[in-house]
Amino acid sequence: MTERQRFYLSWTVMVIAAIIVISANTIFVPSASYIARDLSVNEAAMSSNMVFSRMSMIICMFCFAAFADLFTSRRLMQTGLVICIISCGLSALSKNIYVFDLAQILEAVSRATIMLTMQLWIAGISNKENLASRLSWYTILITISPILAPSVGGVITEWASWQYCFIVLGILSLAMLAGMSVFRIQEKSAGEQAQAKAKFAPMETLRTYNEVIRRSPLLPLSFSLAWMAWFDGGFMAIVSFLFVDELGLNAAELGGIIMVYVAGAFAGRFPIMYIQKHYGPRVTFLYHQAVVLLATFGALGYRLITGHHDIIEIAIVMAVFGFGFSGMYIYCLRNSMVIEPERKSVYTSLFNTVYSVAALAGVLTIQGLYLVKFSSVHIFQTLTATAAVFMLVGTGLHLKALKKLNNNL
């Protein structure tokens, strides 16, 4: 097998594994209100699984840098698949919200492990010039998961039950685990494999985190993205209750609406490859920021003019938001890997931790607003207005940080 053939085989195997595991986080979204009814819980309690899931991802991502260089990508991917299989089994067998929450915690650990492994694997086989392009192609491919998974999950729920969503994913994960035991994955470069022999040093990782947080531009560069993640986390927590309970759709129809939103995110992966290459970081940032602000202010303006939100309007707004949001994520992820390439495992872990903390805050915001009896429509309005304000603040912080970096990105 030639080196090129091995690369494409490795790419195919890694991406398929990522698609399967990431699907476990979105396949049941259209069925959330059904699951809540079967497990006899309200909206706030049902969203608790998202809180625990986000918290688990944060912990896993924060700790990942200390482990990343100790194991091969193949071993890390196999570990993620095993955890995903256990999670799917527990989800399908859940008889109460506590078991379902535990299953989603394990799914979050699986997802975080595979997501970060994929990002570092791509960084290890790429250079500064083609990193953004390869990250974009990777995220384009894995966007197949959130496009198809909710739609498939909604149909499975209507035809059978929501439990079968997890049964199907568990079987696919098991098959992929068996396949990965046979395929030989192309690993990191020779230099990085030598670095991987370093011993486990969590305290050194913590000291590096502290130094990065205090001295690097990572946080101001990611401020706007964090508020997009906050909005996205909150929206995904209310989407089933908003469309099913308040706007009258069923799970299968909601899957189609979510597909429109994720299709926007899918399309948003393409422009960054051209804009980043030809116009640099400043234009790339402003372009995606403008698209996201167009969506949020469009939603606020529609409500101001008509006095209400409706299905078509929210679907269009979220498709536009997803377009800008997904491009911004790739842009910021790429930045985190090239600020200090020799520390990219630390920067990648910290970047994803910040991102997940923001998404968790969005879910916690939803829980609080449900507890004080906000309707799903009013929560959507609150999320939109708040995110728009802080994304504007983030614009100033980001441009200031870029000025200090000059053309280093």
Percent of residues in β-strands: under 5%
Class from helix and strand fractions: mainly alpha
Mean pLDDT: 82
Which residues sit in consecutive blocks of at least 5 with pLDDT less than 50?
Answer: 189-196
Could you explain how this protein is built, in words?
This protein is mainly alpha-helical and 409 residues long. 83% of the residues lie in helices and 0% in strands. It has helices at 3-26, 32-38, 43-46, 48-68, 73-93, 97-124, 131-142, 144-159, 163-180, 190-195, 202-215, 218-246, 251-268, 271-306, 311-338, 344-371, 376-405. The longest helix has 36 residues, at 271-306. The two termini are 36 Å apart. The model is unreliable at 189-196 (pLDDT under 50).
Chart the SSEs and their pairings.
Blueprint: H1 3-26, H2 32-38, H3 43-46, H4 48-68, H5 73-93, H6 97-124, H7 131-142, H8 144-159, H9 163-180, H10 190-195, H11 202-215, H12 218-246, H13 251-268, H14 271-306, H15 311-338, H16 344-371, H17 376-405
Which properties best describe this structure?
409 residues, mainly alpha
Describe what is shown at a glance.
The chain is mainly alpha-helical and 409 residues long. Helices cover 83% and strands 0% of the residues. The model is unreliable at 189-196 (pLDDT under 50).
